[in-house]
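Structure (tokenized):
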């Protein structure tokens, strides 16, 4: 489903990733573990086609960055849901509107959007809070809202960039349980974390990154 082949990307003042080779199979749950600044977010952005490799190539469901046309990017992102550490919820929109936004972008009918969003909010434990604004939600609820927003377009892949970074241990554990459930339904999950203790016993594949390089 996802393959990075000899991928390198650098910034002006530091190296992002260097000569990365990584494959993620359909329906697989993979952790990328490493300290802040090690290259985890860069990998996420490369997979999301927000960045493009200076060397090597990224392949997602048959699309190749070396042959990619701009019109292909929305089709690729339609099958990828992003979960951010900083939530990235719109403060001037309520929970329902935040979660529904990707479906409006896809041009779906309002009746379809209402049904899908309600079902998704129920799945992540936020049913009944549709009219709450982000500031009225706890950190854990905001992160669950991000999960709902990522899932609402029924993607094949979830990219979760340090989703537990701002959460207390109990809420972080609950979020991991939710991601496990999502993965059990067939969605591939690629999650970045710097907290080895939190994820070490969860039974999923773990890949380590340090200074932009993957470690065995």
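Design, position by position:
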């Amino acid at each position: 489903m996802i393959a990075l082949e000899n991928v390198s990307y650098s910034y002006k003042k530091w190296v992002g990733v260097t000569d990365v080779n990584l494959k993620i199979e359909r329906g697989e749950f993979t952790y990328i573990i490493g300290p802040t600044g090690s290259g985890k977010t860069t990998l996420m952005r490369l997979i999301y086609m927000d960045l493009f490799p200076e060397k090597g190539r990224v392949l997602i469901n048959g699309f190749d960055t070396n042959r990619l046309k701009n019109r292909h990017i929305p089709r690729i992102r339609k099958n990828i849901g992003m979960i951010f550490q900083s939530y990235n919820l719109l403060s001037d929109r309520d929970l329902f509107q935040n979660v529904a936004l990707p479906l409006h972008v896809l041009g779906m009918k309002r009746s379809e959007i209402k049904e899908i969003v309600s079902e998704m909010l129920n799945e992540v434990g936020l049913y009944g809070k549709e009219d709450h604004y982000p500031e009225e939600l706890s950190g854990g609820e905001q992160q669950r809202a991000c999960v709902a927003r990522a899932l609402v377009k029924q993607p094949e892949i979830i990219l979760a960039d340090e989703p537990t970074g701002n959460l207390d241990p109990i809420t972080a554990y609950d979020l991991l349980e939710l991601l496990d459930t999502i993965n059990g339904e067939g969605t591939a999950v690629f999650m970045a974390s710097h907290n080895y203790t939190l994820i070490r016993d969860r039974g999923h594949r773990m890949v380590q990154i340090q200074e932009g390089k993957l470690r065995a």
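Reviewer-requested clarification: The mean pLDDT is 92. The helical segments are 40-47, 73-78, 95-105, 110-123, 139-151, 169-184, 196-199.
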